Amino acid sequence: MDNKKLAGQTALVTGASSGIGKACAIALGEAGANVVVNYAGNGAGAYEAVEAIQKAGSKAIAVKADVSQKDQVDAMFEEAILTFGTLDILVNNAGLQKDAPFTEMTLEQWNYVLGVNLTGQFLCAQAAVKEFLRRGMNGHRSLGKIICMSSVHELIPWAGHVNYAASKGGVMLMMRSLAQELGPMKIRVNSIAPGAIKTPINRMAWETPEAEQRLLRLIPYKRVGDVADIGNAAVWLASDESDYIHGTTLFVDGGMTLYPGFEDNG
Ligand code: NAD
Predict the structure, then answer these.
(1) Is there a domain that residue 1 lies in?
(2) Position 3 in a domain
(3) Does this model's pTM top 0.85?
(4) pLDDT tops 60 at residue 1
(5) 149 C-beta closer than 6 A to ligand 1
(6) What is the mean predicted confidence (pLDDT) over 225-229?
(7) Containing H/E element for 148?
(8) Which ligand 1 atom lies nearest to the CA of residue 117?
(9) Would you give the DSSP letter of residue 188?
(10) 112 included as an active-site residue
(11) What is the number of domains present in the chain?
């Protein structure tokens, strides 16, 4: 198998100082891509990712930017393009939760989650597309690839997390609308929808054996996901092997979206 299937390409991964984003950045680097490792606050995590990518033989830089702020996003893309010449792959991963019962959810909590999870993806996608169009075709099958990190909650409603579920539902139709609009320009746009993956965002759901057992009731495949499950999917979706996959959400969820409540006759 060609394990450097992204050689000669540059990827930018947002929120790549921990969890899924860090794993995607390292996996893309291991597949031969130069990687721009974006982080918001955790510089140490970002530099660990940079080091791991360099160890795998690829180039990487860490760039600090809050993806919900246009000026910071524009500066980050400028630095990425100055360093590596252009950009081929965007992994729109940065995301967070600010949970509250609906009547207690503040406007700040609503705006904060929508700002990072949805507006952040819009701003980064727009900057990436402008660069793809400026650069033109460069020997790969598409002009560029955008991978949006969605969630099973683009489909499954989530009480107590209305802001988060709304943001991921928004990502779903943003991704599909972008795919429709940008397909004719040979820009490929897809989402990955993780189920339950062990990361800091959901530590409470898996860190004790009791919590993990409760979580497994929601997963027909009876395994909590690892960040590598998502990293592998991102590499494939970014590669020419998936060139005809466009406007799709790839659920990587051990079957969480299969209505597991019906496992035992409902
Ligand atoms: P995480 O908390 O480890 O990672 C989120 C990353 O986003 C962090 O590195 C954080 O610093 C970064 N971030 C937050 N605000 C930012 C901002 N304004 N600008 C730039 N970066 C910012 O959690 P994770 O589980 O790795 O989450 C990554 C993505 O995967 C998120 O979009 C999340 O919604 C999605 N997701 C995760 C799971 C899961 O089970 N872990 C399931 C479904 C979807």
Answers:
(1) no
(2) no
(3) yes
(4) no
(5) yes
(6) 98
(7) strand 144-149
(8) 32
(9) E
(10) no
(11) 1
